[in-house]
Amino acid sequence: MTVVTFVQHDGSERMVDGDVGLSLMETALKHDVPGIDADCGGGAICGTCHCFVEVSGDLPAPDSQETAMLGLRPDRAENSRLACQIVLAEGMADIKVRLPEFQM
Amino acid sequence: MDAPAVKAAPDYSALPLSELDISDPRMFQFDYWHGLFARLREESPVHFQSDSPAGPFWSVSRYEDIVAIECDTETFSSEPAISIIDPEPDMILKMFIAMDPPQHDDQRRAVHHVVAPRNLKEFEALIRRRTVEVLDALPENEPFDWVTLVSRDLTTKMLATLFDYPWDERNNLTEWSDMFTNDERITAGEGLKREVIIEHITACLQRFTELWHERKGDGGEAFDLIRMLQADPNTANMVDDPLTYMGNIMLLIVGGNDTTRNSMSGGVVFLNQFPQEMEKVRANPDLIPSMVSEIIRYQTPLPHMRRTATRDTEFRGQRIRQNDKVLLWYVSGNYDAAAIERPNDFWIDRPNVRGHLSFGAGIHRCMGNRLAEMQLRILWEEALRRFKTIELAGEAERTCNLFIRGFTRLPVRVTRF
Ligand code: HEM
Ligand code: FES
Q: Going by CA atoms, what residue is nearest to atom 39 of ligand 1?
């Protein structure tokens, strides 16, 4: 099972058990982890599930739509991803993501 | 003022598809657009109209198709314009809303911080104070026009607050914004000629250039939008490029004006049409943020945006040609039962309430959406706290404009606790 750690902007951490098939965005919502708005519900068309991946195994690279949305963020970093586009798979390594101060 | 004579809706179910007129703003003025878009979604979701005051154009009416086109910015460009009217060659304001990547992304990133949530927190107390003043001055138990006394007044004051614009000149902001979207070609001939619009834009540029120079280096805190632009290295010299400076100022004025204003009016109408939703939010004010999203869906203040095909292409079996205008009808997508459960219900705690198209989708998704939501949230927090009843007291009058769904008059009566 993949353990997902969400780090809030203030540094506080929450570790939850991930379910195969759920995205990181859905995992956060399922466990009431704040800091992800997910306006569009996972379609990569709102950009309000921005996160920074701190620790992970190999992840599939962002597709062109995700890359386009990340390109708008003033706070974009090398490890920026949309949490709705990272889906937990069987045997995936544990993953730790930091959330931005605000979604926008 | 006499109410306008209501024009009867065409019988949309009987007309041949080729005779449907999707360019007549009276469908919004007299609120009979539902039947038109229901027919299009069903029978001709990617629909060509060969003639209109602004030329031929395509209409895309299904939620899913609108999103698909928004995401294909290479084929469906935001240049040269996002309204059906092409820009005037002698006055092309540089607005990133009408640009494609990478230029769009660079410009948007440069000004995004002015409406970023951190700044909104600073504005919140000020906006709340203005809202309270406006609501406390309303007459009790006698009909008044909610559009004039609340929606218009409040959005004007909020714009003035955001720009720290000279208070006694603040009505300029609303006038400039109104004229910008009031072209005669999308208002059934009732709007302004382009020469007049250009005169207004020039006056606006002049005033904002003066304000820029007055503020530059005066040591004031970067608390208003002009100073924020000055404080950021990416935009510190924006005034030297007047078409870019004016483009951004106009975009912030127009973007945040009648959209928010009309949502402020729409909320009153919907809560009166659906009294059980009013009861719900009274019983549980924590629903206000969710209700705000539902108001914005139900109103859809910008019924469409335009894209332009960069090449010949086929979309859902239709052959769209290079340079064709393609209108994305958010107002239709927001009422598409294939994407939105029970779309005709105003349902303040519906699932996935934020998943509407009123802010668009993809890279142009509204930059000011958090600001708009905050303004509406504050309005409803303060209104529900003070008013025991907020009732319609007469017929609403609606805007005659293809680009704007809104209200020109809304008689309302309130009583206080
Ligand atoms: C309920 C209120 C509002 C609605 C319904 C609304 C709607 C929209 C829509 C549909 C777009 C997408 C344009 C496109 O795809 O071509 C947009 C973009 C934009 N809006 Fe709003 N808006 C609202 C409030 C505001 C406010 C308060 C501001 C201002 C400060 C604002 C500023 C902008 C800007 C700057 C863009 C351009 C974004 C881009 O092209 O990347 N809007 N808005
Ligand atoms: S939830 Fe909208 S982009 Fe991820």
A: B364
